[in-house]
Design a protein that fits this description.
By secondary structure, the protein is an alpha/beta fold. It is 38% helix and 22% strand. A hairpin with a 3-residue loop joins strand 1 (19-27) and strand 2 (31-37). The radius of gyration is 20 Å and the shape is globular.
Length: 324
């Protein structure tokens, strides 16, 4: 959503005019992070605050707005718009959260774009966080690919897709949600259904898989990765299962949509050295039917990807509005 109020604050007499800037905000269940970048992509300011997800939508909007204003002050810029990548299913046309996990209190149905626009007096664009992640990665790549799949491996598994250069939302805002495609295991997914990609490839599922194979209890997938690199065969097996499942999911999407490339991000992708062998093996035996190679590569922007992509979403919308 781009619209509502526009700031008219002017610099003091005799003061140099501040540069116009867009703030990118990444709203997750435990942390809200943000940044401001210049036209060359150089970060001018970066920060984060704890996410008050248990206190409801208004508390989340208050925290995000306060962070945006702090970044603007530190970067000495003039705020002209805010882009947000938010967890949950987002109605991108209105900036309202349509659905969210139980981690977020009073988040589903919350009009996030309007709430932030009211607090900041600038236009606000809201995207699903995985959509924003993919927009950020593609913008940073500066490649000519117009068709790309994005997969984010974190606490859960999210997906997004760009077709003909445009982010595909779908009629229900859930296009690209590859994490909840079935057929990968006989395990129960966090959504209550069985066998989804998320049951093998999320950080949570990797930890659970390792324990199910007889490993000692672990806190998260990072601990499993440490044990895999130390030679624990059960940890290696857990990552092999995740890597193979990711490759098969990407190959299926590539076959359906004729996609040449997939970008894999999220915290689990930091263990690319453990995922990549199984991904490569799977692609050798289960490649897309086109016969053309499918490139599956790790994300480059790390924790900044969602905020970068939120800024890119605003820029695309502003260009679209200007072109009318």
């Amino acid at each position: 959503m781009i619209g509502t109020e526009q700031s008219t604050t002017a610099p003091a007499a005799g003061a140099p005019a501040a540069r116009d800037a867009i703030v990118g905000i990444d709203i997750g269940g435990t942390k809200i992070s943000g940044l401001i970048v210049d036209d060359d992509g150089t970060v001018l300011a970066r920060g984060s605050v704890a996410a008050p997800a248990s206190l409801g939508g208004n508390a989340m909007a208050d925290a995000a707005a306060a962070l945006a204003l702090d970044l603007v002050t530190r970067a000495s810029v003039r705020l002209i718009a805010v882009g947000v990548g938010a967890a949950g299913v987002v109605d991108h046309s209105t900036g309202t959260i349509r659905a969210a996990s139980a981690t977020f209190v009073d988040w589903a149905g919350f009009p996030l774009a309007d709430a932030l626009a009211e607090r900041l007096s600038v236009p606000v664009s809201v995207e699903n966080d995985v959509n924003a992640f993919l927009l950020g990665e593609v913008a940073a790549d500066r490649r000519a690919d117009d068709d790309v799949l994005g997969v984010m491996l974190g606490t859960g598994v999210g997906g997004a897709v760009i077709i003909d250069g445009d982010l595909r939302h779908g009629p229900h805002g859930a296009a690209g949600e590859i994490g909840h495609t079935p057929g990968y295991s006989d395990l129960v997914c966090t959504c209550g259904q069985v066998g989804h990609l998320e049951t093998l490839a999320s950080g949570t599922s990797i930890a659970r898989r390792y324990e199910a194979l007889g490993g000692d209890p672990v806190t998260d997938a990072r601990a499993v990765a440490e044990r895999a690199r130390a030679g624990d065969p059960r940890a290696v097996t857990a990552f092999e299962a995740a890597g193979r499942a990711v490759a098969l999911a990407c190959a299926s999407a590539a076959t359906l949509l004729d996609l040449p490339r997939a970008i894999v991000g999220g915290g689990v992708s930091e263990a690319w050295d453990l995922l990549e062998p199984a991904i490569s093996d799977a692609l050798r035996t289960d490649s897309p039917v086109s016969g053309l190679p499918l490139e599956i590569a790790p994300a480059k922007l790390g924790a900044d990807a969602v905020a970068f992509g939120a800024i890119e979403a605003v820029r695309r919308t502003l260009v679209s509005v200007t072109a009318r």
